[in-house]
Write a structure and sequence with these properties.
heterodimer; A: 441 residues; alpha/beta; Aspartate Aminotransferase, domain 1; 7-stranded mixed β-sheet; 17 strands; globular; B: 485 residues; 3-stranded antiparallel β-sheet; 14 helices; 34% helix
Amino acid sequence: MSHRYFPHTDEDKRIMLEKCGVGSIEALFADIPAELRLRRPYALGKQMSEVEVRDFFSRLSARCTPLACFAGNGHYDRYTPSVVTSMLSRSEFLTSYTPYQPEISQGTLQYIFEYQTMMARLTGMEISNASLYDGATATAEAMILASGNSRKRPRVAYSSTLCDAVVETLRTYARYHGIDIVAIPEDGGVTSVEALQSLLADGNIGGVILPQPNKYGIIEDFTGLSDAIHAAGALFIINSVAIDLATLRSPGEWGADIAVGDAQSLGIPLSFGGPYLGYMAAGKSLMRKLPGRIVGATVDASGQRTFVLTLQAREQHIRREKATSNICSNQGLMALFVTIYMSLMGDEGLRKVNSISAAGAHYLARELELTGKMRLSFPDRPFLNEFEMTTSIPAERIIDALAAKDILAGVATAPDRLLVAVTEMRTADEINRYISTVKAL
Amino acid sequence: MNNKLYDKLIFELSRQGRRGYSLPETAFPDAVGSIPENLLRKSEIGLPQVDELTVVRHYTNMSTNNFGVDTGFYPLGSCTMKYNPKINEEMAAAPVIAAMHPDQPARFSQGALAIYHSLASALAEIGGMAEFTLNPYAGAHGELTGLMLARAYHDSRGDKKRTKVIIPDSAHGTNPASAAVAGLKVVPVKSLPDGTVDVEALAPLLDDTVAAMMMTNPNTLGIFERQIPQIAKMVHDAGALLYYDGANLNPMLGIARPGDMGFDIMHINLHKTFSTPHGGGGPGSGPVGVRAGLEHLLPNPRVVKKDDGTYDIVSSPDSMGRVSSTLGNFAVQMRALSYILSLGSDGLMEAGGLATLNANYIKESLRDLYDLPVDTVCKHEFVFDGLKDKSTGVTTLNVAKRLLDYGFHAPTIYFPLLFHESLMIEPTETESLDTIDSFIAVMRDIAHEAAADPEMVKTAPHTTPVRRPDDTEAALHPRLTFDEL
């Protein structure tokens, strides 16, 4: 009997084979050399019914420990409005391809245009592309853009206070693409401005990538850096956790040329790693150098407002090896996700998410210090909702003790370092349980 | 699909004072005030102010301007727009995993790591490879990862002069673009008139500066590259690696495995062969597999199964490096695993044959009216070079647009670049004879319309929500945000 995904009856197959002038499906593969043919079934199980598939996943799900999440490190447990989940399941959005036929893809094109507007506004930049994969790869794309921007200045400097995963990804891309990258050392938990100034003085830096906030959760002060970076002829790139920009000075306000990062924080579920959403926004002068899809407004034959994929001369399907990037599939549906999220939340909702998160984080940090078991690694630095503790007992032991109380304590970034994040999802009860568990250690 | 366009933008629905969110009150004192003033945002963002129902109606109405696989037949060549099963969506939304942080230690995430490992192992069996990473986020990201890995392989042997990659002229645009990002110089190799790689033209290109050759098999004309054993031998004799672009893997399900064809590295588009939805452009997922002997080069971090049956996440200095923040688009991976379990070995064995049957049936049913430049048995897809009757002036673009009037998505057009009027059709195995017959009937009608009333076809579409957008205006005067309208 045929599978429910395959509509072919025996009679259908007979009619079709007859049209093709062959006696069997097998005959359609007669051109494949015999020694290449797979002559056995895959060593995989037999087909499962829905009941069995559900059972398979629920058994594996049961082998994951549900923990109240105080981990961050670039990705955060955020509130997802039920409207977002519901709208994303609209199959007209979900089951469509890249909008190559604008006449029957205005839904996708409209929301990408809304997304571009919202991301440009959130980052304080003029324009945005239609999305990239994640924060790390988006930052790598910005590095490639900066490196190719000026022949005289192919080097790219990045702060050592960027998240480790971002730095490692930059290094991979740089190694193979052939970009000379240089780390700006840190000083007391923030980018060393002195070191940056002396790198800029060398004269061959094409781009500078700085984090806001950084890998310790610290909000860095970029006062004067835009002028210094631009005076040296380099592009100023800021990597940010998207939602933080509702409260923190935006890349545009800092004078950045490119804003990149992960927009997972705009309500996207953690899902053990993705799908998330890389964003890139920039000044309009960089428009033709941006990677990825871009949607623009135009009119149709009857003069009505219409949206289309535009500036495609940058892209791989037109320019092949001369394209600004190899990206084809992006994270389209996640762009819809954050567009609906930002529509619902508005300026006020985003700011409130940040203030609730910051209130919980600052309270937790203070109380944890009072336990005497840990102290803030950088007590004089400002932070929003994430902070690093230096622990007097091994960080992994703290993680185990809190896991026993259904809490993920944070990310152990070193044997005696614990990076802790608090979001609007963490209740007073969970925060207090965290504190009392540490006290009892 | 509506015929009438829902044309609002969310910003136009905004009214001062409305709101669409609900958030709990905090029990703790304000902390934002403790942050120095000069580090805080001064300007408003300018997000819309809308109530919840307005948002729901807006996006619901907007969705009706869209066409998906659930709406109708989507024969977009090389995109494998097969049915996206609903059970996959349900599995991907499993609440415990949906809330799980990517840095949750392995000892608390065994089930999720088992999912990763099960899928990677199934792909290794299907691809005939030793091990897969699921970290790359999309097909092109997989290509990039695979090519970087090829470079890492040569580097690890102290072989620094291999800076070129050979790519057939029929290849997907991502192939040369990925090669460029990986720092490799692209050397194109010609196709024979039948669309397959010209082995004689290939031979002189293979020397000790070649890092890899990229191929897809079947190729973009849907033709199986029969010379593949010989090509693999030539590439390997030259010390290079052979890369398989898995965009066209679907017809090989149950038929042949890239590993057995001699490929060393491959990627798979889960959003093609393994039924995960394309989401209007993504998220995809581009797992990369390697043959035995290359596993240690796979990107960090890697999921491994230990002797005691538990799973761990490891990183190694031997690796080619990290290419992603996390272990990839995990919820997409869950969908693909759900699909593989639902089909099982028996279902998967059938899929490639049925996809191939559907494609050949369409080809044979239309070849009298459409120009078939390469006349042979195809696999999952095939390419027409426009209408057979060129005298009407009706182009492939016109045919594609006219199809929209009849409620079908258009095939891929003007790709591959080997022909002027390429019309690339891929039906997939999930389409019924009834659907395919109605598509064929419409394609035949359009061919007749082109002869009888060419102007009508040239001015198509006529019934879609918008008609023939002005692309030139969009590119000449780019307006990319609401503020520029």
